[in-house]
């Protein structure tokens, strides 16, 4: 039996959805995109073009929910399926768009560079419990106008996993789509085997800005999967109660689903978000707060009630270093996320309020993800009945270490983490150097960088990606990209 956790009853979910629909129809929302407003007017929504305001109708909302796919799949750069976003299937991806990296040498945060991003890609390519990579942080040694496309470029060049990404400018999308086409070779192939998910974020409360709404249009037109990332902040930019925040989150998500489905019915969508409570004492939005995790799990239940695949930013920490707080908050989030069945779990590797990535924490969180994936495998009988022969052998041999039953089921039944997790006895731990967690993680990072094997993407495709990136860089006045010599 797969263990699960729930926070909402079906009756409460229905009530939250009804309230959200009523808000969208009665109060409405702002959409700073006249193309979308004109389209909504064609569907009998009430529009105030001068104030970028729209009141939706229940008919528009219900129709859009029905056309949104109940599931979809993702594929790696070589065209192999990696994800099936259906039912309670769960997949981990690192947190994205960090402004800082935790330097492993100084244990201090600093601005990331290209080499940091390449190291990240080499490591994530080898961490088996991450099904996808993300455009994890913003390299500061390239022009800011190419930061979006550059992150996707490096991900595709150095890692074969599908990418969770996004664009902060409308202009970046065209270049990023060209990268995806360079890998897939045709729009038809890209549609049949999606390679990336784009994050599209409404602005709380109840607003879509020009850039994010345009990204949503662009993705929908090309059937590129999107995740709607609504970010209500309980007690600040949404009601202080978790139920009130869930009503707002539902309304903002539904508005994104409406836009995507009216542009192109059937556009793959993840019902997602990154809500948080607001800690008035410090004026912060803690991702490691238990109430934040409860919001994530609860809105996932609402998405599933609507028969939509789900996403959430969870399993990260607000700590500023790799300490007990980082482990506690990340572990609690990951455990709740898999029990809730959130299909795409974003966040591992991150600390400091979703703003800093750590390569060492990625290695640690890979083990955390593996443990939680084992958790939802549950307890299943494996040739345990009748039990009498097994216990007869145990009493006869005084152990079951090499028993046929043990060797057949050991690796399926027991998750064995890597060297980052200390399970040695004290004497053996001393013999192996008495290393603390940070030392073990640093060793593992260095090992992974040494064992990295280049992506098997064809060299011609890699060269095409480099040419496209160089062209985009020159367009913004950057004639040289800080890439290592090994790059084709």
Summarize this entry quickly.
This protein has 17 helices and 20 strands. It is an alpha/beta fold and 488 residues long.
Description:
The protein folds into 2 domains: 14-66, no CATH class; 68-377, Trimethylamine methyltransferase-like (TIM Barrel, Alpha-Beta Barrel), CATH 3.20.20.480. It has 17 helices and 20 strands. Helix 1 (10-26) crosses helix 9 and helix 5 (147-158) packs antiparallel against helix 17 (459-475). The strands form 6 sheets. It has a 5-stranded parallel beta sheet. It has a 4-stranded mixed beta sheet with strand order 2-3-1-12. It is of the alpha/beta class and 488 residues long.
Instruction: Name the structural class.
Output: alpha/beta
The rough form would be described as: globular
Q: Which percent bin holds the helix content? A: 40-55%
Report the C-alpha radius of gyration, rounded.
24 Å
Assembly of the depicted chains: single chain
At the first level of CATH, what is the class of the largest domain?
Answer: Alpha Beta
CATH domain fold name of the largest domain: TIM Barrel
What is the strand content? Answer: 5-15%
Number of domains: 2
**For this structure, what is the CATH homologous superfamily of the largest domain?**
Trimethylamine methyltransferase-like
* Overall pLDDT level: 96
Supply the CATH architecture of the largest domain.
Alpha-Beta Barrel
């Amino acid at each position: 039996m797969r263990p699960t956790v729930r926070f909402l009853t079906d009756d409460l979910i229905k009530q939250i959805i009804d309230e959200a629909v009523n808000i969208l129809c009665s109060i409405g929302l702002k959409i700073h995109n006249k193309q979308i407003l004109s389209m909504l007017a064609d569907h009998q929504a009430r529009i105030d073009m001068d104030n970028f305001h729209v009141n939706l109708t229940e008919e528009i909302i219900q129709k859009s929910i029905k056309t949104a796919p109940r599931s979809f799949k993702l594929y790696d750069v070589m065209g192999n399926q990696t994800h099936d976003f259906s039912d309670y299937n769960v997949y981990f991806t690192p947190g994205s768009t960090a402004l800082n990296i935790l330097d492993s040498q100084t244990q201090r945060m600093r601005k990331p560079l290209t080499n940091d991003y390449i190291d990240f890609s080499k490591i994530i390519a080898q961490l088996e419990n991450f099904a996808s990579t993300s455009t994890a942080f913003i390299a500061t040694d390239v022009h800011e106008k190419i930061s979006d496309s550059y992150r996707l470029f490096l991900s595709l060049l150095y890692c074969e996993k599908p990418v969770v990404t996004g664009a902060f400018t409308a202009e970046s999308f065209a270049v990023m789509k060209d990268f995806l086409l360079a890998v897939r070779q045709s729009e038809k192939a890209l549609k049949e085997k999606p390679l990336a998910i784009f994050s599209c974020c409404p602005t709380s409360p109840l607003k879509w800005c020009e850039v994010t709404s345009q990204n949503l249009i662009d993705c929908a037109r090309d059937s590129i999967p999107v995740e709607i990332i609504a970010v209500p902040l309980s007690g600040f930019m949404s009601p202080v109660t978790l139920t009130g925040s869930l009503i707002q989150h539902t309304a903002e998500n539904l508005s994104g689903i409406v836009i995507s489905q009216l542009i192109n019915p059937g556009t793959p969508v993840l019902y997602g978000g990154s809500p948080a409570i607001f800690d008035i004492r410090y004026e912060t939005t803690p991702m490691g707060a238990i109430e934040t995790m409860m919001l994530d799990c609860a809105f996932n239940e609402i998405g599933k009630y609507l028969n939509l695949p789900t996403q959430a930013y969870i399993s990260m920490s607000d700590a500023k270093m790799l300490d007990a707080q980082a482990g506690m908050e990340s572990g609690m989030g990951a455990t709740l996320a898999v029990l809730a069945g959130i299909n795409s779990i974003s966040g591992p590797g991150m600390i400091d309020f979703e703003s800093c990535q750590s390569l060492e924490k990625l290695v640690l969180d890979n083990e955390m993800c593996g443990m939680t994936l084992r958790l939802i495998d549950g307890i299943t009988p494996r040739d345990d009945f009748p039990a009498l022969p097994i216990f007869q052998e145990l009493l006869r041999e005084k152990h079951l270490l090499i028993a046929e039953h043990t060797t057949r089921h050991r690796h399926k039944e027991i998750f064995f983490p890597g060297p980052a997790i200390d399970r040695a006895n004290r004497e053996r731990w001393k013999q192996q150097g008495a290393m603390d967690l940070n030392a073990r993680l640093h060793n593992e990072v260095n090992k992974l960088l040494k064992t990295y094997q280049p992506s098997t993407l064809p060299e011609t495709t890699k060269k095409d990606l480099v040419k496209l990136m160089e062209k985009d860089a020159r367009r913004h006045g950057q004639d040289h990209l800080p890439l290592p010599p090994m790059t084709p």
